[in-house]
Please model this.
Amino acid sequence: MGFFSRLSLFLLLGALIVSVPAFADGSHDRTQFGHDIVVSSNDQATEVTCFGCSVHIRGQVASDVTAFGGSVVIEENGQVGGDTTVFGGDLRLDNGAEVSNVTVFGGKVHRDPGASVKGDVTSFAGGAALWLFIIFGLPFLLLAGLIVLVIWLVRRYSRPSMPMPARV
Model:
């Protein structure tokens, strides 16, 4: 199994372990991998997290909304009580949408003049691939470089010394 296959398996397993509480009975948190999340006008959610999908909010989210590799759309009368964070996607705020703080990495904020943002709006626009690499890829490359350095040092200093040839 290659390095990237093992890394992908490890990350997927870690994400599944972390998201287990989201599937508990009575929980109003919503977490999805690869399937869009819709909070309809009559629904309420506590926290919404989406990996590789988009979020559409028509109702109320009491806490944070986070999307990795997807967009967030807060439609008319949609409300988010906490932070709205988007990595590698766009954020659209329709007329009548209400949010607190907004942060977008590698995407754009499309804001209707009738939308209400109570806090800060931070946007790191540009190529989504570049920002995703900086945020997620660079730490893994640094870790891989550190591992390669340790392996090289161990091999270098654990080699047996060569015996000197006998002189005649």
Summary: The first helix runs from residue 3 to 19.
